[in-house]
RNA sequence: GCCGGCGUGGCGCAAUUGGUAGCGCAUCCGACUUGUAAUCGGAAGGUUAGGGGUUCGAGUCCCCUCGCCGGCUCCA
């Protein structure tokens, strides 16, 4: 029997082996159920892949990112088979693996209903049980077209592939990526064909190897991601390497929903969105107001220290300002429509005065530019840092509004820095440090950076300035020591940017701060400064917002802390709980002292039972409960109870006050 | 904006095949004062998001509007 030499790469070692010709990848791994596919010479392959001389073969384990993607991709095929079984008229879109799961898009007459999902899922379970084999065969374009004649969307994908262009549809490369075309057959144990799909693979050996999955929801999605295209019905599912991993994922989702700031916002009485006001417009209640004020006060203090100057600008302006800035030309649909004022119509209906259009401002920068331009500027004044908590209004599409994270009215902690090119590097470095320090003070400390660079099809300014500015940004980002993720082509047309992404307590990432260079706006506003040599120069403008918007930042903090804010931010820092009515006076005196030290404290003098008061404070996630009964009063002490339920009894009141004040001043979490 | 789902007192929920709206918490009143997550009793509170229609009869069925939720698209 002819032999081959192959290299088997296990986790910790490489070993050369001679195997019989015709050996398939799975044979190297003794049919280990944890191995779902193989990496052969750098390419992901099915376990049934036939090895060739010199192949380097590495197992892909089910609990790796690649392994889970293969499980999910296979689950997507099972989903599609189940759907076409139940709804033979359903035409296939694409069905890729995604973070935490998979989806498949279908063109169907009737959108799926919740009951349909249950039916589909149970049919999927049958298919999994059947243990259908996934087998790959390569086909010519003509063969593929013939076999998929009934699947117009697949044919379109083949067209796209043929027409040189990379397919832009997310996930489409999963169907037709790589060199040739391949079709995956699902065959039953008796060898009959159950289903097939155009697909690059790889897949699991059989459907039975899908360890755990669940359908999550259905929703419409535009074909190939474009609003111009028809909508298909998408079914989302999740799939994992084990039942335990699936359960853990579902538990994470529940945890996320327990932390949902919209829910906590009403439970903790922080804010609301009354229908009477309008979509995406929030009302901050007193407790939310305290949080917001704390955030703003501390931010202001840091900005003073950082050399920013504070400015204010109105919420509305004549349209001409936004013509100068370019907003009306490019982003009018993102702005509230104008208020038309001052028009006068004569008796005979003729226009005596045409009137003016005023707009709610969607950004603060035009105003700051006018402040810059209000008089001649010298290079000695630069960098000039203008800061404002500026409230802006954007007419976001109705379907995109989401709690405090996507609103129509928001307040940005916005600043614009006008700088010479020579100052740029030092200024950007200090801004980035400033940003990260501030975010850390609010308890976020796990970051990475994203560098968005020029979109070659859409930009203003010279290539030289883009290159120079981009390399400065990159240098600054690298010097921070943080992970840097490139975002090629992601820049706005007017300049590159760095954005700071923060991971929260349960590992989700949020885009927080952005530091954005702008070569365009100074031009449009004809901003200048007089340089040392007397020449007129144009400053470079930097837009930066640290919180992004206060509303959004509050939402992120709420979810990060699950509503249990660190004491310095907590709306109520201390609840004093008397065990009986006769202890109220003692606690009232203590509370007065705390209040004198700037602590937000309530004494619960309601006629509830003390246990009930503890429960209420606990549900409100108050950081400190100080409880006093006879023993404490006698000893001039209090008993602490913390949010985690642990207690510390008989603490002398002087020490108790010091402890609370200390934690608040140090801005630490308890 | 698009597709789908949902919309019952402040909040969370219930109302068999369409038969005339209930419960818990919160609120108010009264009693009780009790060492670490819910004391007891009573009262008040809803033209079932709004409008139109079908029906002897609509919270339940149909249409429109508004809002919310989940995705898609968008996010200067």
Outline the low-pLDDT stretches.
164-170
User: What's the helical proportion of residues?
Assistant: 25-40%
In total, how many beta strands?
A: 35
Shape: globular
Mean pLDDT: 90
N-C termini distance: 70 Å
**What class do helices, strands and sheet pairing give?**
alpha+beta
Question: Could you give the order of strands across the largest sheet?
Answer: 16-22-23-30-27-26-24-25
Instruction: Please give the count of helices.
Output: 20
Cα radius of gyration in angstroms: 31 Å
Describe this structure in words.
The protein is built from 20 helices and 35 strands. The chain is an alpha+beta fold and about 675 residues long. The strands form nine sheets. An eight-stranded mixed beta sheet has the order 16-22-23-30-27-26-24-25, sandwiched between helices. Strands 2-1-5-3-4 form a five-stranded mixed beta sheet. Helix 2 crosses helix 3, helix 8 packs across helix 16 and helix 13 crosses helix 14. About 0% of the residues have low confidence. It binds one RNA strand of 76 nucleotides through strand 12, strand 13, helix 18, strand 33 and helix 19.
């Amino acid at each position: 029997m002819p032999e081959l030499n192959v290299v088997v790469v296990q986790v910790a070692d490489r070993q050369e082996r001679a195997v019989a010709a015709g050996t398939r990848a799975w044979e190297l791994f003794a049919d280990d159920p944890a191995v779902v596919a193989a990496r052969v010479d750098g390419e992901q392959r099915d376990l049934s892949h036939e090895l060739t001389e010199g192949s380097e073969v590495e197992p892909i384990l089910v609990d790796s990112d690649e392994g889970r993607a293969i499980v999910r991709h296979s689950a997507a095929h099972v989903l599609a088979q189940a759907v076409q079984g139940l709804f033979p008229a359903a035409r296939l879109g694409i069905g890729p693996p995604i973070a935490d799961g998979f989806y498949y898009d279908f063109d169907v007459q009737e959108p799926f209903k919740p009951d349909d999902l249950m039916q589909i899922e149970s049919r999927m379970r049958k298919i999994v049980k059947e243990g259908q084999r996934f087998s790959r065969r390569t086909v010519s374009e003509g063969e593929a077209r013939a076999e998929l004649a009934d699947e117009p969307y697949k044919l379109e994908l083949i067209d796209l592939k043929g027409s040189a262009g990379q397919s832009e549809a997310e996930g489409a490369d999963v169907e037709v990526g790589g060199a040739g075309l391949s079709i995956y057959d699902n065959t039953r144990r008796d060898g009959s064909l159950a289903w097939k799909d155009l697909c690059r693979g790889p897949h699991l050996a059989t459907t039975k190897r899908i360890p755990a999955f669940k359908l999550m929801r259905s929703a419409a999605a535009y074909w190939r991601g474009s609003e111009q295209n028809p909508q298909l019905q998408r079914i989302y599912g999740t799939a994992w390497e084990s039942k335990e991993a699936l359960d853990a994922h579902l538990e994470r989702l529940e945890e996320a929903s327990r932390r949902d700031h919209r829910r906590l916002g009403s439970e903790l009485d922080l804010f609301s969105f009354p229908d009477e006001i309008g979509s995406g417009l929030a009302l901050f209640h007193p407790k939310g107001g305290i949080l917001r004020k704390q955030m703003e006060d501390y931010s202001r203090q840091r900005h003073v220290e950082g050399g920013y100057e504070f400015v204010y600008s109105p919420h509305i302006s004549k349209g001409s300002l936004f013509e100068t800035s370019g907003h009306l030309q490019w982003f009018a649909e993102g702005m509230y429509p104008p208020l038309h004022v001052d028009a006068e119509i004569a008796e005979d209906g003729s226009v005596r005065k045409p009137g003016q259009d005023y707009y709610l401002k969607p950004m603060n920068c035009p105003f700051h530019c006018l402040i810059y331009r209000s008089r001649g500027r010298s290079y000695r004044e630069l960098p000039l840092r203008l800061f404002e908590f500026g409230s802006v209004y954007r007419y976001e599409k109705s379907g995109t509004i989401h709690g405090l994270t996507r609103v129509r009215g928001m307040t940005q902690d916005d600043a614009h820095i006008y700088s010479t090119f020579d100052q740029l590097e030092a200024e950007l470095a200090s801004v980035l440090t400033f940003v990260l320090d501030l975010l850390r003070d609010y308890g976020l400390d796990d970051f990475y950076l994203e560098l968005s660079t020029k979109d070659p099809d859409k930009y203003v300014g010279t290539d030289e300035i883009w290159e120079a500015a981009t390399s400065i940004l990159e240098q600054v980002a690298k010097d921070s020591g943080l992970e840097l993720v490139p975002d090629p082509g992601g820049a706005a047309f007017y300049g590159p940017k760095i954005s700071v992404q923060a991971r929260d307590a349960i590992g989700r990432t949020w885009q927080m701060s952005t530091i954005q260079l702008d070569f365009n706006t100074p031009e449009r506003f004809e901003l200048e400064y007089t340089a040392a040599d007397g020449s007129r120069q144009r400053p470079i403008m930097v837009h930066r917002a640290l919180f992004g918007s206060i509303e959004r930042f509050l939402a992120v903090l709420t979810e990060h802390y699950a509503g249990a804010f660190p004491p310095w931010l907590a709306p109520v820092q201390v609840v004093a709980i008397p065990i009986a009515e006769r202890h109220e006076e003692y606690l009232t005196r203590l509370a007065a002292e705390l209040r004198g030290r700037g602590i937000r404290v309530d004494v619960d003098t309601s006629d509830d039972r003390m246990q009930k008061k503890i429960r209420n404070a606990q549900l409100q996630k108050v950081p400190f409960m100080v409880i006093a009964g006879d023993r404490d009063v006698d000893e001039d002490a209090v008993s602490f109870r913390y949010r985690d339920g642990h207690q510390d009894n008989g603490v002398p009141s002087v020490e108790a006050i010091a402890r609370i004040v200390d934690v608040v001043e140090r801005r630490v979490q308890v």
